Design the sequence.
């Protein structure tokens, strides 16, 4: 885990050359970083689905989210990465943990799904994954090799208040509604 | 008279009962007991009767040419299109229609009146609710359907009304539906009729496909043309049981008649139909509806090939014999009459098959009068005897109900063919006798010629044909042997009615064109097997016997059941119609109908294939046969009556002894040749069995497959999945145990109401789609390229 | 193998997708299902950002979309947790199988 | 506001409103919404009542000449365009009126919701009900395949919940069965949808990238140019280039000729809905478990979508497939007729019997379409409408008695005509219409189909035996219906049913329109149905025949 943090830090802040701060495309460093991060994502995602109690799931989810955030850095999407960490890992996950705490008689309580369903789910998911991989393997992507330069946060910010103003405002409205709604739902019944 | 006057009058006559029907349906309960009946009498049949009378008088006033013009110009409107072929709705306006229409309205009117008297004495309430108005509503509906049937100019409409009279019959037989046997009989009647209609429908389909029209006249013209040219239906090499397609068409249409006229082997429903109220038996199951089969054959006569007619004759012959024999042993007065009806219908059908078109219809009309009368008499008797139908308990009723007894006797005489065959004893140029005497004689004469002298005649016919000149102008060298063919008839007509109207001329050419072709078909008619003739004449001796037996057992001798005897009475409202019908029996034997039918035969059959005895259409051979046959047939009633009276003169003693002597025969007849039993086992039980097999198959096979496929999918998943699962062998054991426990409810498993399962299904489907696309859709990679380019241009 | 392209990221996204689905399919805990949904949303985000990165023209639509998704995911989580709490209040459990009142 | 859009979405709006009004008013709102939809849909009538030179041909002037067309781009992208494309012609129009009418009547039949065994969630019930109506109407008016597919699915889900939540004891099983069956059909349809789009695109590509439209013209009168694959159903059916490509020998899919295999995909999808043997087993279960109004909708409208799909998609777009599979389809049709009738005969559950009779009746639809003759097509179309009226009536009749007796065992009934005379009269009309009695609606369709089948004898020799077997179905139908009437309505009154009230005003109000229509359709088939449908059907058939002749 510490290694992961280290790498994250190095890729994010020890920015080599370009303004975006990602490792140079095509470099060996990128490959190594990618495999480590991707491994993190995969392991923690599997952890989420294998874990039987809810607290462990939450922890695995945290690592997964964090790994994905690192992956965003690798993809030269620093802003998204940061947001991912702040909103997801920092906000949503806390929310979930609160949810766990508020709703569990004991956080270690387990509800197990029937075996049959487990098996079916495994088959379906593995099947889906394999077929998706096959599909990806066959896809002849155009211009896959040259990654473009990253986008600066300023550009994104400007776009948000010009081109994407309406969705942006809508998102704000939605958040407000959600705030009110969530508060209403969770309030103590008289 | 303006254009379409007749059509409008007749159509009003058809619609009036329909108005009455709806009125009774909606306002019936409010009208109450006698009023509802009178509505039906006045509106349901009175108005049509008046209109029919007007039409009849008007029609009799028309000249020959005028009639033909009216027939040709009768109203036709398009009702709908089948594909591109129009179905016309119209009035088939000719003498036969007028005669039938009048006959039906007259008899129905009388029976409606009778019904009011009949229903007065019958409880019409079940569980406190009156069904009185329903009875008259159904009768009105029947009036509408039957009159519509008579008027229809198109086969499809004929079929529609055909089914509707069947429905009315169903409803009326099942009028006492609270009694189990009545509803069973109703159902039996309808379904048996449906079997016949199945054949009708096939005939209809063949007509539609090969003749391209459903209009009766057009179909006949096309049929004749196709025969002449060897095209259309005659071009087909398809055969079934050795019948050509054209024959199958005719037989198919005849199947409808077999159902409705209760011909062997579809006769089983008619005796059971006597479960209905007696007026219904009189109206529907004796006088009108059952005769509709004969009417149908008359109407589609021009579409019949000689082979088809041979089949018709065969069926008719079997029916008339077998049913007459059953009638001998019946003890229920209505059943006895029912079997006699069957036998007489057999005669009509047989006559049609032989070519005695006129005689058949003549017999139909006279039979309608006297059989309706007989049934009403029996209704009077049953009503009078406190709902007793067993003749063994009657006897000596003549004193208590004289009018009924005498009118019944008139009927018996008429059906037995009573008449005086001695030359010279004539009224208005005709022999003295009652209905059956004329019509049955003719039928037998034609049958005789067809059975014994046919080869000579047809040979002669070919000979005549070989002369090339046809028969148009040249008088036949041997008049005595001349066959009647269309051309000749037309020639005669021109001779006799020289100043024919121009329209008639047009009609004649039209007809003679079709007629000439018909004549060619006619030439193919084969000799009839002689046993058919023997059976027919044998039955002519049986008929008087069982009718006289029936009358004697009921009205003469000593009362055998004092209770019944004491109760017996008769009421005027019921015997007035009887008297009118008795008069009608006399009149119909002599006047009106015979000439009208003969007139109709010119156009309705293009005059070909029609063999008749009396009148201008009669040929010498048949006249001759008729001359001497008269002694045998005409004398039959004497023999029959004498034997019957001899046996039943002193009560039932002698009859019982005879029964013991002929026990095996009696048993067979008593059980009606076991038709009901055989049908029940073979058809009803068989059908229900097949139905249960189908249901079993559906529930336990198709459904099983569906559920199994779901289960198997899960099971495979379970098996392969558990191996991978680190629960290992333990998991397999548990899994199998769990699955075995759930085995019954395995199909329920997919439906859980749990969101995760729905996600599972959705994902599974998505996966399958992706796999399909991968496996089949994008083999060359071009598809993938398209996807890619659309995503990342 | 060493040249990391779009496909690599997409495979990671596919893993996230499948595990997310698996989690939804197998958990009976309402919060667990919610966690599965978060994984799914992340899978979508990874896809968006990856496509954004590997296309010409230096556009950033993918990132904007991802941004919105994150925001909406937060909103969704808030509502969902609210629902869970309500369910818990009413049924004293977060086992989704016991919430079947609407089944009639 | 465009009329068709209004018709389609009015019920959904009503449904939304249902969610917000007080509980007691929900059913009022729902009935008003469905009534409003019915009334608005009746506004379509003036389209052909006046103004046209020949009233019969208004829908037939050209297959492409659709009325009330609305056409807006909906989802557009590089190389593809999904349109919001609505319009009606002789196929859709009668079915729209049927849908709005049956929906209104069954909405009214839901009036006594509070007395049902499961009477929770009235808002949800009516919301889903009206959403279902929107889905059904959408299917009948949308002319863009994608839109069609979406409406198809929109209709599926409410049905699932309506059966699964408010149904009888085995509702879960029935609902999932319905859902899985239909979903299986949908998947195949989806494959066809995608394939048709890409292959259409390939056809245009092969023809040089731009071809003139088969039916659309610009304002100047020149045909519109089509440059890429399309979901436009009319275009797919009328564009020569696409048609030629679809039916060409060299066009393969999964190693088979394109047209037949696509036809089969679509066919299975629609045959499940129709339903025809052997895809029919969901129907009896769904009917038995569904509440009465839902049964009415299911039998009255949903089954018609199968037949509509054949006439709208399968035949115009893949005529060759129709020719290729004619024998198989006709066999399936005949088997459905006979097998459905036999199964019906063996049932003891009233509702199941009616359900199987639907299988039998819809077999005529399949048979009539399969033989591809004018009379066959007309008969099939008529049969759909006729069955759409008679079978909801029968289901409602079952519902009425179920409300009183709380069971549906045929053998436990008897003498109901005496107990409930008005109801008995209505039942007689309904069941005789179903039996195919002349003068009532069931007859016309059957006879037309039979004649059409026989007429096909000049093309296919197997048509004769098919027609004869199908005609034999008439006897079986008479058998089970009369037996049913005898067991339920005739016979002596039974003690246990003595106190039953006769049909109430509401029930009569629902039954009478259907009874009137049963009679009207039977007596005036031309004026009530054929005038509106024949033009389109004839042109459709002419197109089909031309393509087949050109290819063979």
Sequence:
């Amino acid at each position: 885990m510490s290694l992961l943090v280290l790498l994250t830090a190095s890729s994010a802040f020890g920015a080599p050359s370009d303004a975006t701060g990602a490792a140079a495309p095509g470099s060996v460093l990128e490959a190594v970083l990618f495999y480590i991060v991707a491994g993190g994502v995969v392991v923690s995602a599997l952890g989420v689905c294998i874990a039987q109690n809810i607290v462990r799931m939450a922890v695995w989810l945290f690592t997964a989210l964090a790994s994905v955030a690192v992956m965003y850095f690798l993809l030269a999407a620093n802003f998204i990465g940061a947001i991912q960490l702040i909103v997801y890992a920092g906000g949503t996950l806390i929310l979930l943990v609160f949810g766990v705490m508020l709703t569990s008689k004991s956080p270690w309580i387990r509800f197990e799904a029937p075996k049959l369903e487990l098996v079916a789910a495994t088959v379906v998911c593995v099947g889906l994954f394999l077929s998706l991989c096959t599909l990806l393997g066959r896809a002849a992507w155009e211009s896959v090799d040259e990654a473009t330069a990253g986008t600066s946060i300023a550009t994104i910010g400007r776009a948000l208040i010009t081109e994407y103003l309406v969705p942006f405002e809508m998102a704000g409205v939605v958040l407000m509604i959600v705030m009110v709604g969530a508060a209403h739902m969770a309030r103590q019944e008289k | 008279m303006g254009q379409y006057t007749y059509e409008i009058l007749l159509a009003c006559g058809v619609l009036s009962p329909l108005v009455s029907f709806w009125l009774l349906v909606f306002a019936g309960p409010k009208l109450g007991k006698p009023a509802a009946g009178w509505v039906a009498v006045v509106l349901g049949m009175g108005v049509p009767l008046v209109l029919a009378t007007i039409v009849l008088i008007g029609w009799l006033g028309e000249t020959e040419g005028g009639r033909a013009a009216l027939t040709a110009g009768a109203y036709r409107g398009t009702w709908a299109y089948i594909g591109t072929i129009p179905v016309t709705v119209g009035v088939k306006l000719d003498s036969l229609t007028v005669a039938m229409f009048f006959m039906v309205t007259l008899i129905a009117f009388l029976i409606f009146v009778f019904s009011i008297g009949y229903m007065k004495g019958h409880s019409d309430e079940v569980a406190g609710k009156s069904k009185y108005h329903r009875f008259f509503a159904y009768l009105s509906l029947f009036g509408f359907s039957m009159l519509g049937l008579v008027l229809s100019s198109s086969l499809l409409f004929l079929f529609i009304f055909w089914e509707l009279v069947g429905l009315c019959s169903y409803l009326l037989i099942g009028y006492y539906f609270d009694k189990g046997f009545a509803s069973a009989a109703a159902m039996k009647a309808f379904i048996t009729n449906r079997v016949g209609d199945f054949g009708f429908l096939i005939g209809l389909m063949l007509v539609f496909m090969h003749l391209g029209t459903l209009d009766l006249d057009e179909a006949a013209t096309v049929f004749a043309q196709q025969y002449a040219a060897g095209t259309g239906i005659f071009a087909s090499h398809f055969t079934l049981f050795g019948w050509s397609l054209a024959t199958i068409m005719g037989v198919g249409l005849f199947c409808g008649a077999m159902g409705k006229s209760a011909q062997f082997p579809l006769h089983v429903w008619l005796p059971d139909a006597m479960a209905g109220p007696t007026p219904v038996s009189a109206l529907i199951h004796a006088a009108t509806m059952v005769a509709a089969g004969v009417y149908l054959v008359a109407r589609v006569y021009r579409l019949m090939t000689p082979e088809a007619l041979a089949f018709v004759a065969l069926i008719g012959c079997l029916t008339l014999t077998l049913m007459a024999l059953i009638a001998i042993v019946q003890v229920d007065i209505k059943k006895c009459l029912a079997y006699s009806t069957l036998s007489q219908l057999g005669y009509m059908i047989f006559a049609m098959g032989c070519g005695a078109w006129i005689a058949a219809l003549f017999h139909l009309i006279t039979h309608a009068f006297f059989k309706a009368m007989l049934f009403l008499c029996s209704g009077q008797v049953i009503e009078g005897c406190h709902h007793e139908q067993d003749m063994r308990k009657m006897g000596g009723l003549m004193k208590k109900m004289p009018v009924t007894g005498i009118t019944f006797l008139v009927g018996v005489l008429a059906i037995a063919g009573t008449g005086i065959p001695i030359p010279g004893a004539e009224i208005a140029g005709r022999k003295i006798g009652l209905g059956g005497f004329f019509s049955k004689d003719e039928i037998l004469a034609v049958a005789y010629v067809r059975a014994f002298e046919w080869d000579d005649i047809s040979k002669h016919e070919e000979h005549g044909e070989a002369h090339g000149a046809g028969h148009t102008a040249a008088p036949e060298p041997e008049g005595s042997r001349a066959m009647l063919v269309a051309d000749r008839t037309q020639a005669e007509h021109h001779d006799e009615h020289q100043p024919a109207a121009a329209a008639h001329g047009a009609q004649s050419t039209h007809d003679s064109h079709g007629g000439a072709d018909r004549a060619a078909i006619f030439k193919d008619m084969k000799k009839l097997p002689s046993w058919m003739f023997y059976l027919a004449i044998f039955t002519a001796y049986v008929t008087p016997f069982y009718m006289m037996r029936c009358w004697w057992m009921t009205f003469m001798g000593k009362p055998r059941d004092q209770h019944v005897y004491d109760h017996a009475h008769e009421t005027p409202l019921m015997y007035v119609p009887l008297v009118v019908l008795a008069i009608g029996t006399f009149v119909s034997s002599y006047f009106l109908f015979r000439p009208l039918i003969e007139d109709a035969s010119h156009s309705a059959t293009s005059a070909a294939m029609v063999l008749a005895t009396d009148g201008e259409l009669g040929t010498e051979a048949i006249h001759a046969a008729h001359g001497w046959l008269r002694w045998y047939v005409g004398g039959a009633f004497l023999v029959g009556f004498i034997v019957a009276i001899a046996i039943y003169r002193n009560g039932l003693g002698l009859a019982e002894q005879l029964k013991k002597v002929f026990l095996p025969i009696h048993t067979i007849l008593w059980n009606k040749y076991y038709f009901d039993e055989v049908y029940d086992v073979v058809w009803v039980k068989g059908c229900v069995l097949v139905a249960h097999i189908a249901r079993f198959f559906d529930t336990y096979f198709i459904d099983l497959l569906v559920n199994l496929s779901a289960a198997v999918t899960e099971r495979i998943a379970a098996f392969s999945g558990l191996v991978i699962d680190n629960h290992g062998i333990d998991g397999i054991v548990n899994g199998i145990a769990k699955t075995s426990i759930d085995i019954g409810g395995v199909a329920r498993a997919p439906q859980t109401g749990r969101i995760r399962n729905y996600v599972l299904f959705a994902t599974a489907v998505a996966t399958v789609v992706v796999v399909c696309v991968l496996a089949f859709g994008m083999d060359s990679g071009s598809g993938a390229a398209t996807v890619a380019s659309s995503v990342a241009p | 193998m060493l040249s990391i392209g779009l496909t690599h990221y997409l495979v990671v996204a596919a893993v996230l997708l499948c595990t997310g689905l698996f989690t939804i399919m197998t958990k009976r805990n309402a919060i667990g299902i919610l966690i599965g949904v978060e994984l799914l949303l992340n899978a979508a985000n990874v896809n968006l950002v990856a496509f954004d990165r590997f296309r010409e023209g230096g556009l950033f639509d993918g990132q904007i979309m991802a941004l919105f998704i994150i925001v909406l995911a937060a909103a969704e989580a808030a509502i969902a947790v609210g629902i869970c709490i309500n369910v818990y209040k009413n049924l004293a459990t977060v086992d989704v199988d016991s919430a079947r009142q609407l089944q009639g | 506001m465009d009329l068709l859009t209004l018709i389609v979405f009015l019920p959904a709006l009503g449904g939304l409103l249902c969610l917000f009004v007080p509980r007691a008013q929900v059913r009022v709102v729902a009935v008003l919404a469905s009534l409003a939809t019915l009334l608005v849909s009746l506004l379509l009538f003036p389209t052909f009542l006046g103004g046209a030179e020949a009233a019969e041909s208004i829908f037939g002037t050209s297959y492409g000449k659709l009325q009330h067309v609305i056409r807006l781009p909906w989802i557009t992208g590089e190389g593809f365009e999904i349109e919001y494309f609505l319009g009606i012609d002789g196929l859709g129009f009668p079915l729209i009126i049927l849908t709005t009418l049956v929906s209104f009547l069954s909405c009214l039949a839901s009036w006594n919701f509070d007395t049902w065994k499961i009477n929770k969630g009235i808002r949800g019930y009516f919301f889903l009900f009206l959403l279902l109506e929107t889905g059904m109407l959408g299917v009948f008016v949308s002319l863009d395949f994608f839109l069609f597919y979406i409406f198809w699915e929109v209709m599926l889900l409410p049905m699932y919940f309506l059966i699964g939540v408010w149904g009888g004891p085995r509702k879960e099983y029935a609902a999932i069965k319905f859902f899985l069956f239909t979903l299986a059909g949908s998947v195949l349809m989806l494959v066809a949808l995608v394939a048709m789009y890409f292959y259409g695109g390939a056809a245009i590509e092969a023809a040089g990238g731009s071809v003139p439209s088969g039916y659309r013209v610009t304002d100047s009168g020149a045909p519109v140019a089509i440059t890429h694959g399309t979901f436009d159903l009319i275009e797919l059916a009328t564009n020569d280039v696409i048609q030629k490509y679809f039916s060409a020998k060299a066009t393969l899919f999964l190693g088979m000729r394109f047209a037949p295999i696509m036809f089969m995909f679509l066919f299975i999808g629609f045959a499940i809905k129709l339903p025809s043997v052997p895809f029919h087993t969901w129907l009896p279960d769904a009917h038995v478990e569904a509440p009465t109004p839902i049964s009415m909708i299911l039998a009255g409208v949903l089954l018609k979508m199968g037949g509509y799909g054949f006439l709208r998609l399968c035949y115009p777009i893949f005529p060759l497939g129709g020719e290729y599979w004619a024998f198989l389809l006709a066999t399936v049709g005949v088997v459905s007729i006979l097998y459905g009738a036999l199964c019906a005969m063996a049932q003891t559950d009233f509702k199941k019997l009616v359900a199987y009779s639907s299988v039998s009746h819809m077999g005529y639809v399949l048979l009539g379409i399969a033989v591809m003759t004018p009379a066959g097509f007309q008969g099939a179309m008529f049969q759909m409408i006729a069955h759409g009226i008679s079978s909801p009536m029968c289901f409602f009749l079952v519902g009425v008695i179920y409300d009183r007796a709380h069971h549906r065992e045929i053998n436990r009934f008897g003498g109901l005509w005496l107990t409930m005379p008005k109801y008995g009269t209505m039942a007689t009309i309904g069941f005789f219409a179903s039996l195919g009695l002349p003068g009532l609606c069931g007859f016309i369709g059957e006879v037309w189909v039979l004649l059409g089948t026989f007429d096909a004898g000049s093309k296919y020799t197997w048509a004769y035996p098919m027609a004869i077997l199908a005609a034999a179905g008439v006897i079986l139908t008479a058998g089970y219906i009369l037996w049913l009437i005898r067991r339920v309505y005739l016979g002596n009154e039974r003690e246990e049913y003595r106190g039953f009230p006769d049909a109430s005003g509401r029930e009569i109000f629902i039954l009478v329109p259907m009874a009137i229509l049963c009679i009207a359709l039977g007596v005036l088939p031309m004026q009530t149905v054929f005038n509106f449908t024949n033009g389109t059907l004839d042109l459709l058939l002419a197109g089909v025949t031309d393509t087949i002749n050109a290819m063979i």
